[in-house]
Amino acid sequence: MVNLASDNSIAIRSIQHYLYCPHRWGLMYIGDVWAENYFVTKANLLHARVHDPDKHYVRKNVKVFTGIEVYNDKPEFDIHGVVDCLELRKDGHGVPVSGEDGSFGFTIVEYKPTQPSGREYNEDDMMQVFAQKLCTDYVFGCDSQGVIYYADTRQRIELPLSENYDEYAEVLKDVLKEMRNHLKAGTIPDIPRGQHCRGCSLKDLCMPGKRSRNKVRDMILESAHA
User: Fold this and answer.
1) Predicted TM-score (pTM) above 0.85
2) In a 3-state reduction of DSSP, which class is residue 72?
3) pLDDT tens sequence across 186-199
């Protein structure tokens, strides 16, 4: 599929990064800072296996496609990304697919290495899948469902995307507006109050706890005279 994303288009993966921590997102996409740790490496290896283009197959009458590029270039969104896995099931209320007989229902499957403790899913991951739904529905003219598959528990968690469509769409519009404002101004968002940095690959580079410019200057001078 031809990628029709515009120069102003925002990658779905970066939306998840912003919702996880706006400051971390700013360091990555505005400050060009990046570092990997165990959690990032584990997730990358999982997605590398899932996105293998040779792994399109049929399982129990379900057509499975991996690493599918999608986009939505409506002005209020203008986003693009890659769906980990797209499952097509025969459905009389679904949509026709080129080269296939009948109509199909679409299910987006997002793979995550570890299920969060004490809850079914993280909100930022759920919104990532919702953004994928906006793009998948736009490209294929369907009303796709969304699930998160956790590799550690081997569980599929169904997400309430269609039920909360209008609410999530408005939230996403606001988030995209914030992201574009920061990108245009070149400003890195502050660290959110109460942000938990454990497990973050940028923890050692982030310097949580604000210091004034004078204090930073004093630290540099002290180091130079040590």
Assistant:
1) no
2) strand
3) 998 887 666 665 55
